[in-house]
Amino acid sequence: MRTLGLLGGLSWESTLVYYRELNRGVARRLGGLHSASLRLHSLDFAPVAAMQYEGRWDAAADLLASAAGGLRDAGAEGVLIASNTMHRVAPAVQRACGLPLLHIGDAIGAAVRAAGLTRIGLLGTRFTMEQDFLREHLQRQHGVEMRVPGEADRATLQHLIYEELCRGTVRDASRQASLAIIDRLAADGAQGIVLGCTELGLLLDPAALPLPGFDSTLLHVQQAVDWMLDDLPRGDA
User: What pTM was computed for the model?
Assistant: First the structure.
């Protein structure tokens, strides 16, 4: 099994999901008492969030790159950024640590194309929806076009992610507001919906959406499990 370095804490609510599902995925594949070989650096999210809001992406890149280097030195053979938004600095992190980086956009793109879709609605933070780092990756590498919500809907999503989900609050009113945003994206031509924030799976079940749903967190986990266990035989459960 390859050892994976996990850059987490972005927020820790979704890092919990990553840790649990990575271990469950390995156990399903190998059976018995097997679990994932991981190195975890859980960052303090408050300074990182401040860097996001202030546009200090170079400082954020330096912080994550240093953490990734520590994971490498601790024995990680690859690195995963447990956040869609922080893939804004993924190239810098990969260059600095020299490890394979499992890009969340590749996990999303492969699943969307496997479903036969090419035009997808994107829910996420303002940074993910309004900047081009994820949308361009999906278009360039996978031929997937991303549609984003309007200004008011982007503000709603930003609030419920940072003020609710990252703080462990899950409200039915926010779920209903998100479903209304999805309806508007469908009317704009979206064929499916990407939950493009690693906390959104805490609020929305992709199987219960009115369009085909793609949970970026769970897709990222599956990509990571496949990478960790590549060429290993399956065990008995």
Answer: 0.94
Each residue of 167-200: b (16+ CB within 10 Å) or e?
eeeeeeebeebbeebbeebbeeebbbbbbbbbbb
pLDDT digits (tens, 9 = 90+) for 206-231: 999 999 999 999 999 999 999 999 96
Residue 39 three-state SS? strand
Local structure of residue 87 (DSSP, 8 states)? G
**Tally of CB atoms within 10 A around 79:** 27
Q: What is the dihedral of CA 42, 7, 110, 33, to 10 degrees?
A: -60
Distance (Å, rounded) from C-alpha 12 to C-alpha 168? Answer: 9
With cut-offs at 50, 70 and 90, classify the pLDDT of residue 236. very low
